[in-house]
Each structure stands twice: as structure tokens, then as C-alpha cells.
From TrEMBL:
It catalyses: L-cysteinyl-[protein] + hexadecanoyl-CoA = S-hexadecanoyl-L-cysteinyl-[protein] + CoA. Its main location: membrane. Belongs to the DHHC palmitoyltransferase family. Residues 165-283 form the Palmitoyltransferase DHHC domain. This is S-acyltransferase. It is a multi-pass membrane protein. It is an enzyme of class 2 (transferase). Keywords: Acyltransferase, Lipoprotein, Membrane, Palmitate, Transferase, Transmembrane, Transmembrane helix. One of its GO terms (molecular function) is protein-cysteine S-palmitoyltransferase activity. The DHHC domain is required for palmitoyltransferase activity.
Length: 349
């Protein structure tokens, strides 16, 4: 009975939906519809929490006239947080396919130039640069011997590694160390951290720094908004009970969100300072190249300062592919700290 009634409704709505899908093609994809819905919900929540305090607190409006800088900075933080959110959600995490395509293009360009001229190819040609951190002499991609993507990936692993064990069964591409296939994006991501449903994209090599800044700004905005809520309740408690109920409920949600954001900010700060990812930390015992390494040893860490520099200061146009550390390097990282190590800042450099 219900299906017979709902069928004419679906038939009448079908032309409208088809017209919407033609105007906005991304709505035709259920996954992208869900992502857009979450983004719209997040923006709406921001507008509600900020709008309510301005709507209820008349003293805040008066304070704006006498101290305009206070609310100006708050609104600037609000706008900056939303802008950072859309920048992060719209940025690429660094896909393996993109790195492979640019590597092959640079390889073809190098071979073309080397056949027409004896001059070496400049490392600044093209839009992307592929760098191999800690690569052995004579094995660099931009060196005198141009290599393919397969050779480039094999150079990042110990000698004798089979290329079959490095090939993704979904994308059919060779994965560099720390890359993983994301089933939500259906792509392999360089230095995969996690897939964020609120962003609608993965967090990886390229956008991890942007993600950290978004969390930092979101935490500051949540804290400042909570301060405004508490100040309102202190000054206007018991004046209008329905306003108090709304403000208290929103304040509780803010407090829970603030605790979650603070923990998330501290967690990702720890990951950045030690050059780890969420996936590597959670699945450490299941990842082959981390299985035999002690838990307190960070194989890809080059010290706090260098880790920060690589994440925040290296251009987004550079794919920094890290090779697996050797047994000697792992043994050196396992060595306990001494007083001399602290004086020479071994943990920082």
C-alpha cells in the first residue's frame, strides 16, 4: 500500500531531481552529496553558535561600540576558521597517481632534453617536484640517470624488495613507503593519516599542515565562544528562563566539542613532532615496515625542528618521498639519550 502511494511521488520528483543533477553534477554522486551535507551542517552550526550570542546578548552589542577591536578580532577568527576549513577540504592530500604522473612527465622531459642537449635538466621545470629524502648517491630521480616511477619507488625500499608486494590491488600502482589506499576516496594517498568525513577528503602528506591549522583555529574559536556564553550567563541568569536553557544546552555542546578539539590538537601535534601518522600509530603492528621496530622509536623522525620544517615550510608542489630507514639508522634511533644528547639537542635536530 505504501509503495503504491510513494511510487507516484517518486515519479513526480524524478524530473526535478534530474534537472538539479544537470545543474549541479556533484549532487548525482551519493558520496559527494553526503560530503556536501556534512559541510553545510558544519557551517550552519558555526552560524548558530555565533548568531545566538549576538542575538541574545544586548550588552555585547554595546561593548562592540566602545571596544570594536574585541568583536572585530572574534569575527576575523570566525571567518578565518571557515576559510581554513574550505581550503583544507578542497586541497589534495597528495595522491600516488598524481605523484606518479608528474614523475613520469619529468622523466620524459629529462630524456627529451638529454637527447637534444648535453646540459642537465633543471629541477624547477614543470609544476611538481619529486624529492627522495635520504636517497643514496646516484639514485636521485632528478640526477643524471633518469628513472621510471617503478625504479623510483624501489629505491625507497631495501634491496631485493619485490615490486608485487608494493603494488596496490585497487589502483594497480606502486606505493611508496607510508602510502595507503583509501576506500572512501578510492585512491592511494601519500603519507596517509586518515579520512576525515567532515572535510570530505583524506589527510595526507600535502594537507596535514592545513588540517592542523584548521584544528587550532577551530579550538580557539570554540574557546572564545564559550567565554562569551559564560559571560552572558553570569550577567543575565534568571532574566529569561528559555534563553538560559538554550544557552546552557549550547554551552554544554561547546564544552564537549572543546574537549574533543583539544585532544585532537594535542594528538596531531604529537604526530607532527614525531613524524608519524594516525594510521601508523594505530596499525603499527600490522604494517610490515614497522612491525619489528620498538614502539617508542620513531623511524621517520629527523628531530622536532626538521619535522616541523618538512611539514610546514616545504612547498605544496613538492612530493617528499621518504625511504625506509636502514637497520643502522634504526639502531641509532633506539640508542638511549645521554646528557650530551640533551646538550646537543639530539631530539630537535
Amino acid at each position: 500500500m505504501l509503495s503504491a502511494v510513494s511510487r507516484p511521488i517518486r515519479d513526480s520528483c524524478a524530473p526535478v531531481l534530474d534537472r538539479c543533477f544537470r545543474l549541479v553534477p556533484c549532487l548525482a554522486d551519493p558520496a559527494r552529496r553526503s560530503s556536501l551535507g556534512l559541510k553545510a551542517a558544519l557551517v550552519t552550526l558555526h552560524l548558530v553558535f555565533v548568531g545566538v550570542i549576538f542575538l541574545f546578548d544586548s550588552e555585547l552589542i554595546e561593548k562592540t561600540k566602545h571596544e570594536p577591536w574585541y568583536i572585530t578580532f572574534y569575527l576575523l577568527l570566525f571567518v578565518a576558521t571557515l576559510v581554513q576549513y574550505f581550503i583544507t577540504s578542497g586541497s589534495s592530500p597528495g595522491y600516488v597517481l598524481d605523484a606518479m604522473r608528474h614523475a613520469n612527465e619529468r622523466n620524459a622531459l629529462f630524456q627529451k632534453i638529454s637527447t637534444t642537449s648535453k646540459q642537465p635538466a633543471s629541477s624547477k621545470n614543470g609544476n611538481m617536484v619529486i624529492t627522495m629524502e635520504g636517497s643514496r648517491p646516484g639514485r636521485s630521480f632528478s640526477g643524471s640517470n633518469a628513472t621510471s616511477w617503478t625504479k623510483l619507488v624501489l629505491d625507497l625500499y631495501p634491496p631485493g624488495t619485490s615490486i608485487r608486494s608494493l603494488t596496490c590491488s585497487y589502483c594497480n600502482v606502486e606505493q611508496p613507503p607510508r602510502a595507503k589506499h583509501c576506500h572512501d576516496c578510492d585512491r592511494c594517498v601519500l603519507q596517509f593519516d586518515h579520512h576525515c568525513v567532515w572535510l570530505g577528503t583524506c589527510v595526507g602528506l600535502v594537507n596535514h599542515c592545513r588540517f592542523w591549522w584548521f584544528i587550532c583555529e577551530e579550538t580557539a574559536l570554540c574557546l572564545w565562544t564559550g567565554v562569551l556564553y559564560v559571560a552572558y550567563l553570569k550577567a543575565n541568569i534568571a532574566l529569561a528562563w528559555w534563553k538560559d536553557v538554550i544557552m546552557i544546552v549550547l554551552l554544554i555542546i561547546l564544552a564537549i566539542s572543546l574537549i574533543f578539539l583539544l585532544l585532537l590538537l594535542l594528538f596531531h601535534s604529537y604526530l607532527i613532532l614525531t613524524n608519524q601518522t594516525t594510521y601508523e600509530l594505530v596499525r603499527r603492528r600490522r604494517i610490515p615496515y614497522l612491525r619489528g621496530i620498538p614502539e617508542r622509536v620513531y623511524p621517520f623522525s629527523d628531530g622536532v625542528c626538521r619535522n616541523l620544517y618538512k611539514l610546514c615550510c616545504v612547498k605544496a608542489s613538492v612530493y617528499n618521498l621518504e625511504r625506509l630507514p636502514t637497520a643502522q639508522e634504526i639502531e641509532e634511533k633506539c640508542r638511549p639519550y645521554t646528557c650530551l644528547d640533551f646538550l646537543t639537542c639530539r631530539c630537535c635536530c
